[in-house]
């Protein structure tokens, strides 16, 4: 079944850099270059709220599982903003990064926020700390170049970096596993797939790989999209892998079917700019009910499309 | 006894060491007398080698160096107290408040003017009382007035100039020049005693030359003479620019050279002018009747140098012509071909003169064979002997192969096209991006080259078809290497030979065909794995509900033991910031320490620190 456009939202002025579903999938948060974060109902497509407070464009969004804490990171702000979504207010600003913060991730209970910046560091914050100096728990400096994306699992921090490596910081074993991919191209996105067994890694040489986390071997590779100059994010559900692309299309691969050829199953048009990010609906990730929104994509022309 | 302890760090000791710590700021005050002079002075003004104890003799013996004398000495009777005077304030003048800059401004603002009698820019009418008699010499005629006007501008009444009065005392009379008197022999009376003073030298005023204009500037048609019968006048650019102003009053009548006679007229006019000039500007040498006015002037003294006026006269004999010639409208031959006059300032050359005769070329004999080395550049080498003639004979025809053989032209062998890349690379490159989009011919050649490389790897060099050239082969090889897609793409085309890639816009949602389901799985590059160690923060583990790793715990325990000094410092810092038992501590100083949050929590002080803290701060060591 070909994905169709359910809603095309054009609330933002300027590029939309980040778009996420909340944990239930009912809402969509989008953050863009116009320094605003918009909360939209994914079913109806109407805008519910706008969160203003960033001084510069927004590079990343993350929300906790209980939707209590929304973390957003800005460009030149060098800060991580924590929002109270219910009140639509800024609760906290975490400032310690030396350069712009490009990605952010929140733990399930919302107490830990991890942010990665262009300044090669990943900082771990405690949102429950009373005063700012104590909020920063740790700085991870192993990367040799800016951090492009972050994933926070219950026991690990996974950071992908422009130096071409994906680092998995395991809190239980106290080890960092550095996976460097042979091409040397920057890794722009990393996601965890299949109950944590595989890592989806997208690099700037135009390839997306599915890597087994146990031994680092590549399971499948997908290509066809264009990722040469920009940070194009990808996502994976149970059976599909989707990625944005610089040519304005959303590429979707079926993991089982397309792993041989690597060429896209679907090539969805609808945006007229660089498709910055793609995200699957939480239900699609967990493999439950279908019928409502399946995928979310945001592009540099200011449009956000909810696919079904 | 040394009051100050001598430290080895500051040097060996002595006063000089104290000065080491001095920082010199600013510049020295300049004293009124120079350094040298200062050296020669003594503190009390006595001579350098003055001895206060030895008796050296002298009339003031006994009282030397004292105020006393044989008669005794009385102090001044009245003690005058300056107390009263001190209360008086010195009158402050504005100059006291001024600094150097202000004083300099005052100086600059002071302008020196010539007062009263000494003024030189006096009105000409005042001094024009007697111009003619002041100017000595034989200048007669209309020029005298003009001269005098100029001269009087710089002259003042004789009495007012000090120099003049001095010279008058010495025997000079106003209007005379300076120099020895020249003896004049009076013709009539043969009296040799008469002596004439020298002629005055005119004071030149340097006026800027304003007549710097080109041909035809500032002249209206009405200015120009209608006929040549009038006397020619001198033009402006005299030898002496200052005296050019003298001639302003005169008419700007210029000779007209546009008549048919042309150059002859000019010459005649010139001669006329010279004669009249001679008549005009004569320094009394020749009168109308040839007699001199003042008699023959015989200079027996020093040879009188030619004055500037004399030179002016000489120059004006041949006047310089810079004024434009204006064509007279009456002359029909002076019109241009379209019936209009030429531009102002231009002279139409008479058409008869402009035509020149055209002569036919020489007659070429029949047997003449010309050697045409047309279009041959200097830098070409001379062709082989004999070939030149042959080529010329065959000029106009293509050089055929026979001719080439005859001429001995040897072809360099056409190089074969080498396949520089192996066939896999070529095949892969064919599947990849194709360069030279803008040049389809080149792209076709590139593809052909790749086909050649792909298909026949082992055939070795082969001579090309017409389009491929060996020169481009290395370039194409390089391009193929660059645009060879990576292995991900490669894997698609392992078995199906050469196919095109997924390019161009497709309808959204189109499904690409899967050829075979038995193809090998497209694999990316396996990751290179390295493992390092890191210690997660305690609090992080706590919040994530993760048991911290074993080595972290051990390290933390060790760190606590080693942190005694740090702890002391921490406590000191806390003490400083501590504002009471209930106050909270903000240990911002500790941000860079590697103590974890938990340790910081532990160190929150609620009681007074022990004596060791104070000892560490105020203690003896360090």
UniProtKB/TrEMBL annotation, chain A:
It comes from the Eukaryota. This is WD repeat-containing protein 83. It comes from Coemansia aciculifera.
Automatic annotation (TrEMBL), chain B:
GO terms for biological process: mRNA processing. GO terms for cellular component: nucleus. It comes from the Eukaryota. It holds the Pfam family DUF1604. Residues 159-179 form the G-patch domain. GO terms for molecular function: RNA binding. Residues 253-292 are annotated as: Disordered. InterPro entries: DUF1604, G_patch_dom. PANTHER family: G PATCH DOMAIN-CONTAINING PROTEIN 1. This is G-patch domain-containing protein.
């Amino acid at each position: 079944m070909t994905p169709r456009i359910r809603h095309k939202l054009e609330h933002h002025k300027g590029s939309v850099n980040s778009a996420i579903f909340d944990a239930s999938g009912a809402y969509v948060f989008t953050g863009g270059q116009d320094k605003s974060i918009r909360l939209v109902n994914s079913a109806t497509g109407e805008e519910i709220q706008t969160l203003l407070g960033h001084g510069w464009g927004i590079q990343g969004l993350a929300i906790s599982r209980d939707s209590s804490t929304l973390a957003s990171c800005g460009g030149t702000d060098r800060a991580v903003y924590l929002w109270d979504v219910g009140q639509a207010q800024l609760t906290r600003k975490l400032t310690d990064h030396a350069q712009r913060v490009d990605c952010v991730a929140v733990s399930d209970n919302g107490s830990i926020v991890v942010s990665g910046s262009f300044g090669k560091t990943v900082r771990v914050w405690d949102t429950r700390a009373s005063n700012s100096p104590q909020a920063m728990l740790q700085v991870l400096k192993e990367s040799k170049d800016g951090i492009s994306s972050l994933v926070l699992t219950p026991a690990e921090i996974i950071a992908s970096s422009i130096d071409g490596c994906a680092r998995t910081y395991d809190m239980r074993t106290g080890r960092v596993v550095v996976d460097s991919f042979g091409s040397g191209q920057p890794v722009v996105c990393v996601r965890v797939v299949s109950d944590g067994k595989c890592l989806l890694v997208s690099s700037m040489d135009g390839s997306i790989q599915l890597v087994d986390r146990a031994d680092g071997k590549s399971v499948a590779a997908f290509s066809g999209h264009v990722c040469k100059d920009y940070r194009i994010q990808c996502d994976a559900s149970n059976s599909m892998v989707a990625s944005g692309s610089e040519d304005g299309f959303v590429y979707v691969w079926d993991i089982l079917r397309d792993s041989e050829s690597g060429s896209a199953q679907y090539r969805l048009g609808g945006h007229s700019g660089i498709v910055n990010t793609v995200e699957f609906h939480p239900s699609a990730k967990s493999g439950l009910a279908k019928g409502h929104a399946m995928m979310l994509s945001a592009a540099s022309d200011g449009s956000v499309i909810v696919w079904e | 006894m040394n009051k100050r302890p001598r430290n080895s760090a500051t040097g060996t000791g002595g006063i000089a060491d104290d000065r080491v710590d001095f920082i010199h700021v600013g510049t020295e005050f300049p004293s009124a007398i120079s350094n040298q002079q200062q050296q020669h002075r003594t503190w009390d003004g006595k001579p350098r080698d003055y001895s206060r104890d030895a008796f050296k003799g002298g009339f003031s013996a006994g009282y030397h160096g004292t105020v006393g004398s044989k008669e005794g000495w009385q102090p001044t009777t009245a003690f005058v107290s300056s107390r009263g005077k001190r209360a008086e304030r010195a009158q402050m003048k504005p100059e006291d408040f001024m600094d150097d800059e202000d004083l300099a401004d005052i100086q600059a603002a002071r302008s020196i003017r010539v007062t009263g009698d000494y003024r030189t820019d006096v009105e000409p009418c005042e001094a024009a009382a007697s111009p003619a008699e002041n100017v000595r010499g034989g200048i007669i005629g209309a020029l005298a007035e003009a001269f005098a006007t100029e001269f009087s501008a710089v002259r003042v009444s004789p009495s007012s100039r000090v120099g003049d009065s001095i010279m008058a005392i010495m025997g000079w009379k106003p209007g005379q020049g300076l120099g020895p008197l020249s003896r004049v022999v009076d013709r009539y009376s043969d009296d040799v005693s008469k002596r004439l003073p020298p002629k005055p030298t005119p004071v030149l005023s340097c006026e800027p030359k304003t007549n710097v204009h080109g041909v035809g500037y500032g002249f209206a048609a009405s200015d120009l003479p209608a006929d040549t019968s009038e006397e020619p006048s001198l033009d402006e650019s005299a030898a002496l620019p200052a005296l050019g102003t003298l001639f302003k009053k005169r008419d700007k009548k210029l000779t007209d050279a546009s008549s048919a006679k042309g150059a002859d007229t000019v010459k005649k006019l010139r001669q006329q002018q010279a004669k009249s000039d001679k008549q005009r500007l004569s320094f009394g040498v020749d009168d109308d009747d040839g007699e001199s006015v003042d008699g023959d002037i015989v200079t027996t003294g020093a040879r009188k140098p030619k004055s500037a006026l004399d030179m002016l006269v000489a120059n004006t004999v041949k006047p310089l012509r810079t004024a434009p010639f204006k064509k007279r409208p009456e002359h029909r031959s002076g019109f241009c071909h379209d019936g209009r006059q030429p531009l102002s300032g231009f002279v139409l050359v008479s058409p008869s003169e402009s035509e020149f005769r055209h002569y036919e070329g020489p007659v070429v004999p029949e047997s003449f064979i010309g050697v045409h080395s047309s279009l041959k550049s200097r830098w070409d080498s001379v062709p082989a002997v004999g070939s030149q003639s042959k080529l010329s004979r065959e000029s106009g025809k293509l050089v055929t192969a026979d001719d080439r053989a005859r001429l001995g032209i040897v072809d360099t062998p056409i190089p074969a096209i080498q396949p520089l890349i192996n066939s896999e690379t070529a095949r892969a490159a064919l599947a990849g991006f194709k360069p030279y989009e803008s040049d389809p011919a080149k792209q076709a050649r590139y593809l052909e080259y790749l086909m050649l490389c792909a298909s026949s790897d082992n055939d070795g060099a082969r001579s090309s078809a017409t389009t491929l050239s060996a020169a481009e082969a290395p370039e194409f090889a390089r391009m193929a290497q660059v645009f060879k897609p990576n292995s991900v793409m490669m894997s698609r085309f392992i078995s199906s030979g050469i196919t095109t890639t997924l390019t161009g816009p497709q309808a959204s949602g189109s499904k690409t065909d899967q050829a075979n389901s038995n193809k090998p799985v497209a694999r990316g590059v396996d990751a290179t794995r390295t493992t390092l160690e890191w210690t997660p923060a305690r609090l992080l583990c706590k919040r994530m509900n993760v048991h911290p790793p074993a080595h972290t715990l051990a390290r933390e325990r060790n760190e606590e033991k080693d942190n005694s000094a740090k702890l002391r410092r921490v406590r000191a810092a806390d003490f400083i910031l501590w504002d009471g038992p209930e106050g909270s501590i903000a240990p911002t100083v500790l941000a860079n320490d590697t103590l974890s949050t938990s340790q910081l929590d532990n160190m929150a002080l609620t009681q007074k620190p022990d004596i060791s803290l104070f000892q560490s701060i105020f203690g003896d060591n360090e």
